[in-house]
């Protein structure tokens, strides 16, 4: 399971890199518009996941700013890791 989580984190990181590269230097055509929309949607979803982490697991885990940053960048894959920590 941890290999799948790490692979998901890698794919997520590549996705962020492509979307941010597009925001800094827009790609030609419709793909640039689509990637900008995906960047906004991804950022909104990951911010929502940070809120989920804070309100649902924050009282049961000692969380640092880096933990919140992990969820902001890696989303559900980081949440899965914290959920597994609680189950141990």
Query: What is the number of beta strands?
Result: 0
Our Rg estimate from Cα atoms comes to: 15 Å
Global geometry: elongated
Task: Summarize the amount of helix as a percent range.
Answer: over 70%
The averaged pLDDT comes out at 91
Oligomer: single chain
Order of helices and strands: HHHH
Verbal overview:
With 88 residues, the protein is mainly alpha-helical. It has four helices and no strands. 10% of the residues are buried. The mean pLDDT is 91.
Task: Please name the defining characteristics of this protein.
83% helix, 4 helices, mainly alpha, 88 residues
In short:
This protein has 88 residues and is mostly helical.
Could you give the topology of this structure?
Blueprint: H1 2-24, H2 30-57, H3 65-74, H4 76-87
Helix pairs in contact: 1-2, 1-4, 2-3, 2-4, 3-4
């Amino acid at each position: 399971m941890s290999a799948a989580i790490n692979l998901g984190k890698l794919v997520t990181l590549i996705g962020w890199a492509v979307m941010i590269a597009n925001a800094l230097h827009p790609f030609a055509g419709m793909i640039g518009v689509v990637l900008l929309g995906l960047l906004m949607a991804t950022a909104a979803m990951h911010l929502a996941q940070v809120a989920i982490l804070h309100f649902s697991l924050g009282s049961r885990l000692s969380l640092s700013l880096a933990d919140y940053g992990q969820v902001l960048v890696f989303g559900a894959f980081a949440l899965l890791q914290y959920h597994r920590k609680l189950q141990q």
